[in-house]
């Protein structure tokens, strides 16, 4: 069976978000859907996987709520289950920034479609910012994009404080699926930036719609599931995940002496304690036994 992976989000007031959680959880369980859905007063955010029928059923169920009637989603396929379990979690924010003034329900930047994106970021007057975490940026990004060198989205406002709204007249931002750059656009507008743009549907939509020979994307795109990374056309990428620290690792990483399969990688070898090495070794032994029988 091919697993359909659906990613979606919407900033919309959900005053009954707490009451919605158990109902949504039960519905997903009944459809044998796996993945994670976040609910907050400000909206919904999820990446889930299941059969074609299950995903269609859940999306129809969500859109039956007038507040989510125009809920947009992005899809890709996987030949193996990308998630092991289901989570429907209550959060303060569906993407954590920690800045109440960043409210996409009040103001948001200008959406730019994948077809329009190349022309925008090729403009030398446009400051192009990758709003993702540093480890995501390192395996792929757009030409001319600036890496803010952040380890979490919460650090993005501190980076913005280094920018001058009078100097940067045009700012274009992007992220994996569109949610972080949408909230980032609301924050920049609250800080006095005038012309703020963000990639509609995020990198995933761009890689799906823009042909490889016209793409300005360089490298691969990190995704938050067992695929680890994808290429243009949403083809599976070449990265795997370090089982010790969760960092994406390349074939070049695996060739380094610091890499030990399922134990550590060049990103965590220096911090690996004897106790953690023992735990990782035991976990790998148990996994191998489970595969044998």
How would you describe this protein?
It is built from 9 helices and 15 strands. It has 293 residues and is α/β, with parallel strands linked by helices. The strands form 5 sheets. It has a 5-stranded mixed sheet with strand order 4-1-3-2-5. It has a 4-stranded parallel sheet with strand order 6-10-9-7. Strands 8-11 form a two-stranded antiparallel sheet.
List the helices and strands and how they pair.
Layout: E1 3-11, H1 17-30, E2 34-40, E3 43-50, H2 52-63, E4 73-78, E5 86-90, E6 110-112, H3 114-122, E7 126-130, H4 134-137, E8 140-142, H5 156-160, E9 170-174, H6 179-190, E10 195-199, H7 202-209, E11 217-219, E12 221-222, E13 229-230, E14 240-241, E15 248-249, H8 251-254, H9 274-292
Parallel strand pairs: 2-5, 6-10, 7-9, 9-10
Antiparallel strand pairs: 1-3, 1-4, 2-3, 8-11, 12-13, 14-15
């Amino acid at each position: 069976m091919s697993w359909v992976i659906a990613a979606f989000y919407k900033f919309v007031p959900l005053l009954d978000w707490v009451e919605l959680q158990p109902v949504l959880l039960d519905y997903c369980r009944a459809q044998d859907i796996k993945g994670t859905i976040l609910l907050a007063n400000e909206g919904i955010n999820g990446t889930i996987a299941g059969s074609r029928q299950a995903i269609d059923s859940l999306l129809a169920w969500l859109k039956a709520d007038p507040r989510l009637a125009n809920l947009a989603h992005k899809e890709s396929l996987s030949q193996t289950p990308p998630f092991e379990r289901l989570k429907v979690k209550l959060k303060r924010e569906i993407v954590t920034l920690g800045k109440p003034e960043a409210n996409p329900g009040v103001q948001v930047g200008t959406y730019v479609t994948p077809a329009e994106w190349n022309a925008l970021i090729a403009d030398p007057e446009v400051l192009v910012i990758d709003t993702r975490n540093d480890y995501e940026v390192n395996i792929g990004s757009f030409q001319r994009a600036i890496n803010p060198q952040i380890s979490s989205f919460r650090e993005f406002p501190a980076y913005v404080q280094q920018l001058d709204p009078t100097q940067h007249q045009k700012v274009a931002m992007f992220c994996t699926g569109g949610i972080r750059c949408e909230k980032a656009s609301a924050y920049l507008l609250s800080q006095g930036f005038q012309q703020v743009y963000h990639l509609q549907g995020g990198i995933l939509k761009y890689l799906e719609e823009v042909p490889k020979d016209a793409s300005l994307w360089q490298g691969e795109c990190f995704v938050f599931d067992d695929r680890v990374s994808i290429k243009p056309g949403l083809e599976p990428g070449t990265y795997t995940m370090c089982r010790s620290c969760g960092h994406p690792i390349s074939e070049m990483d695996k060739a380094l002496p610091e890499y030990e399969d399922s134990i550590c990688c060049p990103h965590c070898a220096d911090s690996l304690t004897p106790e953690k090495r023992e735990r990782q070794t035991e976990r790998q032994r148990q996994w191998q036994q489970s595969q044998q029988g």
